[in-house]
Amino acid sequence: MFTLRETAGYLDVPKSNIQRWARPPDAKSPLITCFPPRGREATVPFIGFAEAFVLSSFRRAGVPLQRIRPAVEVLTREIGVEHALASRRLYTDGAEVLFDYANKHGEREVMDLVVVRTQQRQFAEVVKDYLQRIHYGGDGWADSVRLPAYGEAEVVVDPKVAFGLPLLVHGGARVEDLVDRFQAGDSVAELAADFDVPPNEVEDVIRLATRAAA
Is the pLDDT of residue 212 over 80? Predict the structure, then answer.
């Protein structure tokens, strides 16, 4: 479970976007799975986190917020499963569905999500890159996500490990542990040795944490 702020921070997305997707101001249904607010408790389950991850790729591909909802609705309807954004079927069938929808309705921005290569409809590079960062379980649903904000470090969110806190693939350290130690005065070299993480990845994690704090 994640808070809206954690979801935004881990995905490097403005919190206002996550807020709008989880709790639309116009009484429409949410675009990501989110439980009703209860004080400061976490309300976004992993499936909602995965949905937000995919939506963030749509935004990075240039699709305006107001065009995302129709795209999600047609994906849900045509793919035929609830939580379509977190389903492997989005990866296998989604480009075809969105191309047909955008072509029929003249949705130029949605069309930008899809390219045609060798007579096959595929997701545009930015969306394809994001979808390739999702690992799907045997049941066809997303079960871990490799975060896109890092340049050198490979950082994953896996709800089965460390309560879903971001972890470095190399060494298995929690991101927050590296950041806490660095803020306490440890050097990059000390962190790299103690956590068995390459120094360039430690620097990447610290750089992103410093930027987020600023």
Answer: no
